[in-house]
Amino acid sequence: MALIRRFEEKAAEAYALGKIGGFLHLSIGEEAVAAGVTSALRPDDYAISTYREHGHCLVKGSDPRRVMAELFGRIDGLSKGKGGSMHLFDKSTNFLGGHAIVGAHLPLAAGVGFKIKYEGGDQVVVCYFGDGAVPQGEFHEALNLSALWKLPVIWVCENNRYAMGTSLERALAQPEIWKFGPTYGIPSEAVDGMDVLAMREAAARAVARARTEKTPALLEARTYRFRGHSMRDPAGAVYRTKEEVEREKQRDPIVLFRDRATKAGLLREEELKHIEKDVNDLVDEAVAFADASPEPPLEELFTDIFREGA
Amino acid sequence: MAVMSYREALNVALREEMTRDPRVFVIGEEVGLYEGAYKVTQGLLKDFGPKRVVDTPIAESGFTGVGIGAAMTGLRPVVEMMTFNFALLALDQIVNSAAKLHYMSGGQFNVPIVIRGPGGPAHQLAAQHSQSMEVYFYHVPGLKVVRPSTPADAKGLLKAAIRDENPVIFIESETLYNVKGEVPDDPDFVIPLGQAIVRREGTDVTVIAYMGMMYRAMEAAEELASEGISVEIVDPRTLQPMDSGTIIGSVRKTHRAVVVEAGAGFAGMGSEIAAFVTEQAFDDLDAPVERVTGASAPMPYAKNLEKAKTPTKEKIMDAVRRVCYANRS
User: Closest Cα of chain A to B301: distance in Å?
Assistant: First the structure.
């Protein structure tokens, strides 16, 4: 969680400096979802996500230096700088991408579940999506198919209450997203997305079921985005009140976990400082690495359009 | 060589590839129990079982996405569109996911998927079921687009498409499923994607045509021969990548070109071919390139209107005469 937070704070700085272009969507405030869910996975499990995926990608095990280089549009980025912030992919960690058409990657996740079942494996695939994907037809098509064919897909809805600037209540006739699960016969629950341990436990239940029974699950992670929709919506103040944002910041998932772990005697002040320093160093190193990495050579424009060979 | 229908040739191609490679599976609406709306998948469920012949609900975007997700993680799906018109519901999946995952991932993931089914003008199927669909796909970098005109091509190109590492849009035709022809038996008979074929040799004018239009052009060529005009017919077979070399080579020989396409002409395949012929063989041309295209109107149901919408043999003959400056009609 600390790594994601620090990584994205630095990315915001780099964006302000013009080192990162295009769209940059931060998940600050939502880190507990990625961290909690991923802690219930094995390395050979798959994850697939949206354009707000830095955290999902990092916790799945990608090298922060290569992620930052991708955001910088450099050759040492995960996708050689050709994907950018919204399209992070890492085959070495089974991270299947950053997809930026809302809802479109849900059928892909069902396809990955199909593949796992086809080959008789016991992996699972986690599919992260926002509340904004729920009104899309593909959410319903993919949930139906995953239940109909009993596919090991863990649907994780990061409900941060706003699809860009449209609140849940303005988008969904049924704003309790977990309730769509039972309609398709999918075990579902709403989880406190600010509580990393609650996320971990809910994910572990879903994963265990998916591995043995090949059944999908729907987790509605109730979370909150502290920053705007993207860097072009810095405050996010038009569609929500300052008071609301400040109130939600009181439930910062990192602070909540830190306090809990400290009180339980599991983390000492010293160790916290150590973690903070490690993370800062790691992210500084990532920025330096990205900065030093060259731009992709021009011939990269025409590579990777088609794969040769049969 | 065996004589078989275009439909049977496709069926044999699927069987051979499913036998050769356990990763290949067929998925789509009515492909299993119903044996295919046009019976292309006849018998496959019985022979390969429900794991590899997967019936889906009506959810084109959903099951196309399933194919893409399965392909990017190692399987080789053949997705059937009951008719290609329904592929519009999956257009985002095809254009934004299948075509771009290899590029966006910097080459880490590829999508070896075939999306196949009938398209193009058929018989009185009206506006929503009778239209040339290739135009929506060949514009997109990352997609290969195939339009096989004969039973042998149907088999050889489908097998090549299944073995290809990239997404291939493979558009058949309702009007050709019963066409019979000789088809090689060799299970390794594969026609590489991106190779045009000269269907008929001639010396006066090159006609570029595919699918039903190719057959119409052949009829036109027969009649024109009696007028003393020798027509060469080139069938591109694959529209992306396009074998421009074979077309340019033919035009350099005949010095005249007519492109026939069933769809509406604006920004169509004819425009593209006319453009590259003009760019690459301008000095060889003795006449401007002519396009014979479908009318710029939705496909009407009424028989007479349908006929007026689609290029006829007569229209092809007129265009050939015009480029030969032989306006005899």
Answer: 31
